[in-house]
Amino acid sequence: MSTENESYEARVANTCQSLAAQLSYDESPLESDLKHALKEAAHALDSHSVRLRRAGAHLEVVNARGKARQLTIRERLARRLLRGGMEIRP
């Protein structure tokens, strides 16, 4: 089910997402609240474990599941001011 390279955060996020997919917003208020909480937890775990990857001339931020985005202006500026040594926290 999980690969050797997959991080702990990615596995937990996938578990939260798959459990949320089995729940419904229509059944009961408790079930809908649980589904929402699981989706929020998966998103939080994804955004807390990011790494930088060079894509040609640009840098990309890759989350735990492998989704990539380009650095924002603020992140590029902070990286340049700190001379590349920084930890990116969303």
Task: Provide keyphrases for this structure.
90 residues, alpha+beta, three-stranded antiparallel sheet, 3 helices, elongated
Record the SSE blueprint.
Elements: H1 8-21, H2 29-48, E1 51-55, E2 58-62, E3 68-70, H3 73-81
Antiparallel strand pairs: 1-2, 2-3
Unreliable stretches? none
Helix content: 40-55%
- Class derived from helix and strand content: alpha+beta
Anisotropy-based shape: elongated
The chain-level mean pLDDT equals: 79
| Beta-strand fraction estimate | 5-15%
Strand order of the largest sheet: 1-2-3
Largest sheet, described in full?
Answer: 3 strands, antiparallel
Work out the count of structural domains.
Answer: 1
Radius of gyration: 16 Å
Count up the helices: 3
Distance between the termini: 28 Å
Total E-strand runs: 3
Helix-strand pattern, N to C?
HHEEEH
